[in-house]
Amino acid sequence: MSFYEDLVRSGREHPDAIIRVDRGADRAVITLDDPGKLNVLSAALVQQLKAALQELVADRAIRAIVLTGADPGFSAGGDLRMMDEAPSALASPAGATDIWRWIRYEFGAVVRLIARSDTAFIAALNGAAAGVGLAWALTCDLAIASERARIVPAFGRLGLLPEVGTSWAITRRLGYQGAFAYYAGGEHLTAEQARELGLVHEVVPHEELLAAADAWCTRIAALPAHAMTMTKPLLRSAADATWENTLAMEEFAEPQCFTTDAFADAVRGLLSA
Fold it and tell me: Can you give the pLDDT at residue 90?
């Protein structure tokens, strides 16, 4: 059995639940629930999270998913014990590709589920967020933070690169020089500093974090279902498209909305007001 296959197997066979899912009629809250280890991204946590996300994004009734951590942290990032064992995989027949498989098919699977699904994702940062855990949060459609949140750029001090979409996210929010300083400086950011830099949308008192996330779920649920599911891929595509291509995408998409009952009802309501 390869290093990658062994990690997947051990994760799936873990006896305890370290992901908590609270499902409502049109929303769900997923909590990384291994607080004694600061919700480190162990093989078990990653396998359980991926399975939960696959089930939720397939449920068309779920309009929004909140991703948060059990206090005191959001996630400490990658499991150092797994990292310590990783060099031994280089001596296997698969070499470095076993590590690549884990990064792509496990860590990467989570960001792809977040980015490619039509479901809206809200990261609710309750404490320190580092490494791949931070990458997952930055991939969400919206990030809000409690006053206790900390953004931890841990890649550099471990001799690693920004991964799982982090380099894409921080250069678009901070620009090249800002992203370089973020990586090279390695300084922890407070929640308010993260807001000022555009890494999170808003900062709220710690005890109000989940209520604030739920309020966003309510706003999303109030929109016609087609509007959000069509707008999310449009906005994500626009981040890398030219102005001309973005305009063309909008021109093709907008007429579809004119055919919906939700649009017709809204127009009639405004006309009769």
Answer: 65
